[in-house]
Amino acid sequence: MQLTRRPRRNRRTAAIREMVAENQLSVSDFIFPMFVMEGEGQKVEVKSMPGIYRFTLDELLIELQEVVDLGIRCICLFPNYPESKKDKYASESAMPETLYLKALSAIKANFPELLIMTDVAMDPYSSDGHDGIVEDGKILNDETVDILCKMSVAQAQAGADIIGPSDMMDGRIGAIREALDEAGFEEVSIMAYSAKYASAFYGPFRDALDSAPKFGDKKTYQMNPANVKEALLEAELDFQEGADMLMVKPAFSYLDVIKTLKDNFEIPVTAYNVSGEYAMIKATAANGWIDGEKAMMEMLLSMKRAGADVILTYFAKEAASLLAK
Ligand code: PBG
Q1: Which residue ranges in the chain fall short of pLDDT 50?
Q2: 229: annotated active-site residue
């Protein structure tokens, strides 16, 4: 054949393929989500997330050395609380001596260079297992936002670098920004979970936290998976209210949403590669039905290609070790 264009020339060897690659993963893109629980000397694997553990604080600090040595520069911490600490108003979340805040300060003290992103939402502390205050089966918006503001300021005081409201209440970014500024935390960033969908892919995470809703679902506050224009509206509001970064969650079934936000906003877009996406790869790989490492790298790369600047992923450690090879 007489062909002027033979695209295969650019795929001939590994060197040429890598030279012309349009996108690349880098360990500095990753945020590693981690789980802390009460107690001492324990690490317990999350059943539905092989390789991911809930750590007591002392064990978490040991694990963090490994995380930092792999070149990971940001973690996102989530707490696991016993039912006895939960109530309707998530009161535990702003108690000065509470596990979560103590953990943030201890991490900051031991790893001052490591960025810490937090989780702002009521569910880990809520006896209803919801992200907001429940009354007569409804989630109250404005009353919840007051609690989220207190939680955010407490987390900033404890050393958080990036506040991550994952609750999907209306108006919370603006309110949190104001509360942080008033308390003197102008330098603390906000990563807005802007397009957070009501997804089945959060199942394993709720196992990790024992935080599944006690009744109903989260569809009156998390978004309908059918929508993408609504993601633009959510992102626009968060942008106007002062968000420093936007997030799309989950990531893998929502690559179009990542691309839409990337094309329409000038601030960084984060993809949350959620627990169910992690579990899917782990389970299929354990069955020998897929090459887990290759599938992981392909999944993460697809998020970069869609436009993600940052990726929250339970694969952070594994991917970091592969990238270092
Ligand atoms: C709740 C929260 C959830 C996740 C992060 N924060 C679950 C939910 O909304 O029910 C899910 C993360 C994951 O699945 O990896 N505020």
Answers
A1: none
A2: no
